[in-house]
Amino acid sequence: MSSFDEKTVLDILEKVSKSVVNISTIKIVHYMFYQAIPVEGMGSGTIIDPKGYVLTNNHVAGGAEKIGVTLWNGEVLEGRLVGSCAVHDTAVVKVSRRDLSAAELGDSDKLRVGQRVYAIGNPFGLAGGPTVTSGVISAVNRTIESRRGLIENLVQTDAAINPGNSGGPLVDLEGKVVAINTAIIPFAQGIGFAIPINSAKKCTGEMIRTGIFTRPWLGIVGLSITDELARYYGLLLDRGVLVTKVAEESPAEHAGIAAGDIILRLDAGAIYSIEDLLSEIHNRRIGDKVRITVYRRGREQTFEATLSEMP
Length: 311
Hints:
Layout: H1 6-17, E1 20-30, E2 36-49, E3 53-56, H2 58-61, E4 66-70, E5 76-85, E6 90-95, E7 116-121, E8 131-146, E9 149-157, E10 169-171, E11 177-182, E12 192-196, H3 197-210, E13 216-217, E14 220-224, H4 227-233, E15 241-246, H5 251-255, E16 262-266, E17 269-270, H6 274-282, E18 289-296, E19 299-306, E20 308-309
Antiparallel strand pairs: 1-2, 1-4, 2-3, 3-6, 4-5, 5-6, 7-8, 7-10, 8-9, 9-12, 10-11, 11-12, 13-20, 14-15, 15-16, 16-17, 16-18, 18-19
């Protein structure tokens, strides 16, 4: 299909928009003197199963006392939080309704920088259907620090993602959901982030079964070393992960890893990129001990870290 076939693209967006819902929540916040105050919240969600399962952000639905789900046609349903995953800022909400219009999930591993995408959201459940903004994939495999901690392996886009659009889908030209939008950096201009749909797929099944999804955590922010990066920083190595930040009270900090270290191996596995490191960590369990070999001040050093649950 030509990327300039506007009518076809609009028809696809109209179809997928029927799987986008508004999510309104009431959360109980405890202030001083133990006073409990109900606070209203709002976001978007994506129907991923005709049986009534809706994928959204953890910061939208997590911890909610009451959840309302408004469909594209204005019908309001009561939602129930099935499970949440703080690691990927995702949550699953269930409504007692079947035969819903579910979105088709794509493959975020195939995303390319410059690829056109559309962010869809339904922040207010207004008549006329969800809102649509367009943009491109600006970058992939981003690791950023938000008020909720480190979030790894994000998709960066310049498609406008407003706070009320959190939890809505980021779709490609075929209407397949390639990521779940999340507005986690306030006041950012021209920068939006989304959770790759493949990451969401990994945790939705476990959330539905057990109500929670956790993964082991090392606690570093790093960059894959490339030829360009090595030349820019005057590095002697052309592979590995350059540690740019270590989270406080993390397994990495307790082990002695510091900013400026270059991670070369995790146990016996060679680390060539940040993707290699994340893959190795996620293949292990919380509580596992790992040996991390780094390059520091001209020589290799090995540290032992005990992987913990992401706070």
